[in-house]
Amino acid sequence: MSEAKEYKYIGQRSIRPDGYDKVTGRAAYGADMSLPGMVWGKILRSPHAHANIKSIDTSRAEALQGVLAVATFADFPAQKGASKDLATNILANDKALYHGHAIVGLAATTADIAERALELIDVVYEVLTPVMDIRDAIKADAPLIDEKLMTVGLAEAPTSASNVAARQEFKKGDVEAGFAEADVIVEREYYTPTIHQGYIEPHACTVSYDEAGQSMIWCCTQGHFDVRAQTAGILGMSLSKLKVIASEIGGGFGGKTTIYLEPVALVLSRKAGRPVKMVMNRDEVLKATGPGSASRNWIKVGAKKDGTITAMQAKLYYEAGAFKDSPMMMGCMTAFTPYDVDNMYLEGYDVLVNKPKVAAYRAPGAPQAEYAAEMAVSELANKLGIDQIDLRIQNAAKEGTQTVYGPKLKAVGLVECLEAVKNSPQYKAPLKAGQGRGVASGFWFNIGGQSSVVLNMTPDGTGILVEGSPDIGGSRASMQLMVAEEMGMEPALFRPIIGDTENLAFSQGTGGSRTTFATGMACIEAAQDVIRQLKERAAAVWNVTPDQVEWAEGVAINTAGDDKLTCAQICKGAERTGGQISGRGNINARGAGPSFAVHLCDVEVDKETGKVDVLRYTAAQDAGKAIHPSYVEGQLQGGAVQGIGWALNEEYVYNEDGLLQNTGFLDYRIPLASDLPMIDAIIIEVPNSFHPFGVRGVGESGIIPPLAACGMAVSEAIDIQIVDLPCSPPNVLKVIQENS
Known about the structure:
Helices cover 28% and strands 24% of the residues. It is α+β, with helices and mostly antiparallel strands. Helix 11 packs parallel to helix 20. The chain is globular.
């Protein structure tokens, strides 16, 4: 594939096919479904962070007129392993493990009656000491969240339970020898807080249980096939008995890749004999859905005087919440990958605390780890007296670099990103007193996976493109453009829609920066299938063989003569040549190209209040090939904004009893438009050779660099090294006062 290849439709800034519905309000989101006879479901949640559940008495609630059904953990069939953890997170069994943990679900004829009924449920708790921080959780005498949990991955099998679920290590070379070569070493511990994805749409579902036929779930999700599998697994249902429809989604960012309400709603619907709707409020979303993991990460980096980095070492501790499996492994895999260094050693620890089970958040695990690594590298550059970008270019990962987690890199665009930022107007602009500048790199490996697509051609030659990936970032437009490019026909002739679990074979969820890459490949395969059939139909009309037919610009050409047939002409006569034409793409995509990003942040700090203002921001990222440049820029800008929020203000605030204090967007402070400058987006295109059009996923790398870019900018502005996030006014002021 040539880097200079020109495309007719790919690279256009077309209007998104779902745009009109969304700006007019016609689009149907999670809470927009209503069914005849529908009733309302609500959840009673724990007022404690850690407590044994001694008894649950729902009799008074059930006696309230209008209450139709009650659900507890006892309504779930016996679970094992990960399914048990998922089920126990959805409804607590014998313990409440975090503030807001779901205890009982009920359904009533109105939402008001359901709310009143929750107050009539009597739960007896034995309150236990909560464990809210990694440092406390890993102590030998820490209260145990799971008395049966044994650490996996230790050199010797443990003999007693702990809050450390797992240990993992990655290494290459000899770090001790590498540090012995170093002239300058930076060694620090860094902290990132518990944060939330901040999607605007709360979790919602509407379900209808059918004991004889097929039950239905309508919900806002990033993966409706996963909703089907997880819900069916918890309830012991056959997959064929459960249909899941993905509504439009008002943001997810990884937080809607799991389930919270759906199994409860189905139990209530089964018991009530009525459809059930459940909608979380913001308080519930922040208390009881999966936030991003807090971390405490120790980093050590050494280099020679000439800037050659000789060794990089890390101990990464991630909070998993009340159930195991934090994104610790991804943190280990990504922390040092922007660097071509011979000697690396990383240890990761998965730690339980009395907080909600963490969920994915856009490059899960990478922002925390790369924050620590990038802060250390920038400090190292300052100690060496080398420009921060120059040090990164000198040690940058490139084609052939051996990663610590296994494969050697193919062609990647990190150096190009670094050079683009160095040559940007922002980097060349001078700073004033009280201002600071930070730069940081970010890496995400991206994934492929299973995607299914059907392209149904209509008798007028237009196509209905049915895909299995919920659209959370404009992917419909990208699919439309790729099919148009392959078919050689105008994009507007193809209408992309999201099919439910009945319409298509299994598709993995929208996450891992896989959709444009993997589902795009399935779209291309489906288009090629249609072209093959169109050529066969044209050959039948002309009484020639299919290999004597060429396809170009939406037209079949008889190479044995002068005949031509358009797609519309072939489709119009399809009934005479064998029936209607439908193409399929069912793939397990391999070769997802990793993506690197480099961000530049300028801030100004008011040293009297600690307030940080972002003055200017530039984000560069390797997209491989930007199918729809506007949406690629949107991903870069959106990731930067979320990372800026993480760096400057966002954090869960718990009191000494483990109760969440900031359960709304007034107190959980996400960035507003008024808080931000325009984010200058630079698209770098180093094609991924494993994709027909060179695509790399772009949805996740953009959230990784902002934490360190902002953190280092604040450090430069106040001339004190920041280690703990967020850089909120009280935290920054405290650092200034403690160092004055």
